[in-house]
Amino acid sequence: MQRIGVFVCHCGTNIAGTVDVKAVAEALRYEPGVVISTEYQYMCSQAGQDMIHEAIRENNLTGIVVCSCSPRMHEATFRKTAQSAGLNPYMVEIANIREQCSWVHKDMEIGTEKAIILGRAAIAKVNLNAPLTPGETPVTKRALVIGGGIAGIQTALDIADAGFPVDIVETKPTIGGKMAQLDKTFPTLDCAACILTPKMVEAAQHENIRILSYSEVQDIKGFVGNFTVQIKKKARYVKEDICTGCGLCTEKCPQKKVPNEFNLEMDNRRAIYIPFAQAVPKVATIDPNYCTMLKTGKCGVCAKVCTAKAIDYTQKDEIMEEKYGAIVAATGFNPISMKPFDEYAYSQSKDVITSLEFERLMNAAGPTGGKLLRPSDGKHPHTIVFVQCVGSRCSAHASKGKEYCSKICCMYTAKHAMLTRDKYPDTDVYVFYIDVRTPGKNFDEFYRRAVEEYGVHYVKGMVGKVSPEGDKLMVQASDLLADKQLHIEADLVVLAAAIEPDMSARPLATMLTASMDTNDFFTEAHPKLRPVESPTAGVFLSGACQGPKDIPETVSQAGAAAAKVIGLLAKDKLKGNPCVAGSDEWMCNGCSSCERVCPYGAITYVTKEFRMPDRTTALRRVAQVNEAVCQGCGACTVACPSGAMDLKGFASSQIMAEVDAICK
Amino acid sequence: MQKVTREILLAKAAELLAAGTVNRVLGWKAGEFTYDVTPALFTTAAELEKDFVYGPFSGANFSKYLVKETRRDEGKVLVFLKPCDTYSFNQLLTEHRFDRERVYAVGIPCDGMADIQRIKDQAGDGVSGVECDGDNLIVHTLYDGDKTLAMADCLAERCVNCKSKKHVAYDELIGETGDVIDSHRFDEVEKLEKMTEDERFAFWQNELSRCIRCNACRDVCPACTCEKCVFGNPNSGVENKAISDSFEEKMFHVIRAFHVAGRCTDCGECSRVCPQNIPLHLLNRKFIRDIDNFYDEYQAGAEVGQRAPLVNYKQEDLEPSEAVERSGNNA
Amino acid sequence: MRKCSTANLDALLRTIAENASLYLPVDGTDGRAHFTKWEDGVKMSDALNTVRSAKDFFFPQTENLMDFKVEGKTIEIIDTREECEDFVIFGVRACDVRSFDILDRVFLVDPVDTYYKNRREHGIIVSMACTRPSETCFCRTFGIDAANPGGDIVCYKEEDAWYFDALTEKGQALLSKLESLTEECDTAAVDAQKDLIRERMDKLPLADLTADAFGGDKLNTYFNAPEWKSLSQSCLGCGTCTFVCPTCQCYDIKDFKTNKGVQRFRCWDSCMYSDFTKMAHGNNRTSQLERFRQRFMHKLVYFPANNEGIFGCVGCGRCLSRCPISMNIVKVMKELGGNA
Amino acid sequence: MQMTEFKPKIVAFCCNWCSYAGADLAGNNRLNYPAEVKIIRVPCSCRVNPMFILRAFQRGADGVILCGCHPGDCHYTSGNYYTRRRMALLFSMLNFLGIEKERTRVEWVSAAEGAKFAATMNDFVAQITALGENKRLEDLRCKK
Amino acid sequence: MENNTNRMKEQILRTSGVNPLKCMRCGKCSGTCPAYDEMEYHPHEFVYMVERGDIEPLLKSESLYKCLSCFACVDRCPRDVEPAKLVEAVRLMVIRQQGQNHLKPDQIPEMLDDELPQQAIVSALRKYAK
């Protein structure tokens, strides 16, 4: 049986004005478990707190109820008071008789009656309270960044600068991501490579950063502060530490017909290759799908020409297991497939290209050496049509495309149009748009310059159809403002394809038990207040894997994610919220219902041997809650049919006791 | 379609026992009067030969026994599964209630099982034996001689409204599997929905008032496999051994149906075993119908590993305030 | 012996109901017979027996024993007992009539259960002979004669008339109130019916079942019998058999917290339940085998051991037709009896 | 004799992050609502077990209302989505049993919606008052 | 008058099953329409005018009969608005309002030739039934 003290606060006249506090204290004195019931002017004042402190000591109280303002106001205060008097802070309950009673009722009699009932409910609850202690877990002071694009690089750099070791895992042979493929960047028109490659080098040389390129995350176990991650280092058949990146092998390799994915397959590379000149790490990789040596055992040219003796055809995939305290997802995006949008003739003509392909065509390191030439015949295009929103902003029920705005297309299309007109003033450039969205610093100015200074034809309307006719592309489109249907004979059509999260994000989310939205973007813990954290503790989000983003936004989010990671890794121990779920193993039947509703992946299952009531032994699968990960929402407690799962601090028995007290 | 007979099943069981594939068989054991068949475990061919039966009263769903059975022994157990049983089987697997490796499941086709109560309603009390004769049953009675009844008129309610002749799980199939059936199983629910609130209340008050809390519905239910039921757990705060107020009838049956909502495969065992003839399956079917109506159509047990509707959500799900109207309840 | 023409039966029932609550088997909305309070227009069921037994009248499923009222820190104990009114149960079969004797041996021996006694004293039993015993009937195994069902008044139904005979003073008193509706008659029709019943009892499928192999001295014979394992194997552990059984008399006493105090009540319990007779250390029968064995050993061995050889089963057959998995006392007796 | 005015008993389960804060805001702004409403704080609306709701009716409540964050705003990201499904099915089932559908309600109230909280409670209390005493889910023992 | 417009709008929306509020005014329907030049009101204008309740001009417009029902606009609309269904619904409204077929059944045999596909006859009856 508890020994409960009840303390009714006047809050000046805030409570006492509408509630007869003396009557409340008197009425609650006879409730089960109550040994002392008293009132005071201001319970939260030092004098009030001292009074509680004294009462706890003198009466050996095991629990207290404070009838006062909202627990959102002073619960923490009274918990501290209790703790100072040697009472477990979770043996305190608050009856909210100010915000939810005296302030909303006018009649003294009614207010007093309700305050007594609220007090009774709190007493009924505290009778069932048990002392709770927050759990502590140590933190592995090391971070993992998954994805080596600008988001991943920036996050890693910021974390590393704060003194914590970071691993970057990148599936491609080089870091750099999409930004490495870009030509110029809006709205300043800096060259992408000029601002990105120094960061890549900095990452490579940073003493706290290790780059695991050509690697994939295979499995993630554990929880905040204590993740164990399996990483597969794919065999690149080149000894990374020995290769000097001289590139001789990539010139001598006889297999020349390998589509070059870095240039979006608009030209070819060799079977042994370095994706681009500034790749980091700058080491060659053999593509096993094309290498004659690996496929037939005959060739070996690269090994012969390599002076460093770095080629190793016998290399195998390697699995490594590492421990981390925090994980950052930075898996980025891809343009969506243009296959379903055949009205634009993407599959019918080489001269219908996506914007990313256009980037490569404009890039000095691209397939055309930076000259804008038609992929079909290498001729200079005179009329270029840009189509916006291809696959973006589609209805949720449409059979193709994405519902969201891809956010970056308006600006890069303005950039493309501007650059084209700048380099080739003899070209006619049309941009078909639905809306031009430019909410960013210097963005609208940039777009206006494209129109006003560079003479880009912006047409409000959509292209309905593109049909190749001879070496021309017949573009049929509507000009809504002129209420006309336009027919343009174009040489090149550029589609601003919607972007979607990288395919690796979904399996990663499953491994992380991080939630995703219907479009496979990672969900943030709170859309406004916790935008760079996943709801799963210890998992952070950086870049376009969380939603479409341009470079400045990506970099700022990357920094924010890094700050959150640093904040976590700076702690030696994590103190949890003790109001967490717990499973009674004797009642649990291992059905997984709780696991499925847990937003944090806090529930795992173990198979244990139990001695059953009938004296037999049985292996049973039972749920275990990781108290460091559980946030205490209680979804599992209702999903569990047997009631094996309960929530500390808000136990079913406590809530039902409150219900009983209120309905009396 | 191959007609399944006792001989075929016996031969299959004997074969699997002899081959060492299984070391015991979960089957039906003959009783006193043909119709009182008991689920039983057989370990030898001789035992099977002596007592194993298969016929219109071999209706018991064995799936739930697998929970206990697979915990007992290292070897495999042979279980015969009718199409409806395979759904329970899958649902139990989804919930990790038994080890699939310890079971050898043989799917058998089913044309529906007989309900002795329906036979007695037609043939009168004093049924001393029932024989199968093609599509008819010949019923031997104590006082009125033999009577011939069409099997179709003797089917159990759950078989009249059979939802599927398709086996969704098995290691081996005897005969052929069938299709999911577009059944009329929701007709009765719909009839109740169309009543007024008052009529529905009167209906359920009358039905549930007969409940004696014997817990047969719970104990037979393949979805009710909790190690300890909340209603039998003195620490749960809602335990009750008997119904001493009509509130408790509602509490028990609503919560029981809620706990199996989205997990109930509609196997119909609850109503079959109710000694008081309460149409408990209607509560489960109401949940199934609402789930189909509110969310996506869902058949528990159709696949292993499905995410049950109550542990799932969509952002555009309907609001509770719209539920009553959408559910078709006349309110 | 007195007789009442079938046409006058309603009037007879009305007369009984004027002086006491009258209960009789009536077909419910579920198509089965249940004991129901008689009022004008209620038709008696033709069914052989009710789903639940007649024990409810003396030993109801739940029963308020007393209340505690809590006010501040004082507790008041309230005796909720009231003197029971007279009531008549009409149409009780021989098996259920015998079950009252068995219950009496539990509740009326010292210390007497006053709740039970109160109702028992106010209840008048009008029994009824079984002209069409069912295949599940085996009352004769326990020496019950369906042709002489007993009770306070015994009754025989024929096509054109009902025959009544008082067997006790209580019965005589009731029958005398019905004199205007009945007439004295000879026993010819009833004797013929008795012959028919006995002839039919001989032909029942379970007519040969005997309980000779069982009795109070058989504890060691059966307690560790290997058959229990296979018999109990598929038992679900539900309480159907115990709750439809006319002789199962186990109960639990529980407290229900009302808004103002505590209501103490007793309710039927079932030895089939895992929490039956749960004590501080846990349950004393931890496996379903033990629980299953308990029920049948009690009926066939322990009860006769303490009650001059009277078995705790009356052969009504309810468990035969209600068990979800069709396991029952007949199967148990046959399986074990072969072992004796 | 004059009939005493029917004062319903209303239990309101409020999630800690949105609705409980919304109720506090209603208090801060001194927005009146009937004292018949008594609030129970739960971490999230998904903590509310259907058994709690039935328990409230058993113990004498005449109406039960459940308040949580707006869908999509749950502090725990998905809790109220589960609440929504559970309660939709539970309410439909209770009504299927003939329980008045007006007795139960779910309302999404954010921490900023003090006015909505008060208005909702005023409306709900009026609705229950008009409906009268809970007879269909009462436990007579609790009324003794 | 106002009521009549609302009624017409509702009827069109009901028969077509189209929700014009889904339109984001991209004009892809008109950009894609092969009969654009023949039309006075173009597909995107149909959607907009129905949404505004500006239905009278549509009823009178020849544009109704210029739509080929090729469904290119339906296929390509990113927002699933289905403009062709709206056009069809307005067309049906005219037919129903007039209640009298432009083509008389007895005229049909003389217009038929062996080459004419069955579908063309049916859609002609619908389209030219003015």
Question: What does this 3D model show about the protein?
Answer:
The complex is a heteropentamer of chains A (664), B (331), C (340), D (144) and E (130). With 664 residues, chain A is an alpha/beta fold. Chain A folds into five domains: 4-126, Rossmann fold, CATH 3.40.50; 135-232 and 317-332 and 502-574, FAD/NAD(P)-binding domain (3-Layer(bba) Sandwich), CATH 3.50.50.60; 235-316, Alpha-Beta Plaits; 335-500, FAD/NAD(P)-binding domain; 581-648, Alpha-Beta Plaits (2-Layer Sandwich), CATH 3.30.70.3270. Helix content of chain A is 28%, strand content 25%. In chain A, the strands form twelve sheets. A five-stranded parallel β-sheet of chain A has the order 10-7-6-18-29, sandwiched between helices. Chain A has a five-stranded parallel β-sheet with strand order 20-27-21-22-23. Chain A has a four-stranded parallel β-sheet with strand order 2-1-3-4, sandwiched between helices. In chain A, helix 2 (46-59) packs across helix 3, helix 5 runs antiparallel to helix 18 and helix 6 (150-161) packs across helix 7. Chain A is elongated. Chain B is of the alpha/beta class and 331 residues long. Chain B has three domains: 6-114 and 162-173, no CATH class; 117-150, no CATH class; 187-326, no CATH class. Helix content of chain B is 36%, strand content 12%. The longest helix of chain B has 15 residues, at 246-260. Chain B is globular, with a radius of gyration of 21 Å. By secondary structure, chain D is α/β, with parallel strands linked by helices. Chain D has a single domain (11-134), classed as Rossmann fold. Chain D contains five helices and four strands, in the order βαβαβαβαα. Chain D has helices at 19-28, 50-58, 79-96, 114-131, 140-143; strands spanning 10-15, 37-42, 63-68, 104-108. A four-stranded parallel β-sheet of chain D has the order 2-1-3-4, with helices on both faces. In chain D, helix 1 (19-28) packs across helix 4. The longest helix of chain D has 18 residues, at 79-96. Chain E is an all-alpha fold and 130 residues long. Chain E has two domains: 2-99, Alpha-helical ferredoxin (Fumarate Reductase Iron-sulfur Protein, Chain B, domain 2), CATH 1.10.1060.10; 101-130, no CATH class. Helix content of chain E is 57%, strand content 0%. Chain E contains nine helices and no strands. In chain E, helix 1 crosses helix 7 (83-98) and helix 3 (43-52) packs across helix 7 (83-98). The radius of gyration of chain E is 15 Å and the shape is globular. The interface between B and C is large, with 44 and 56 residues.
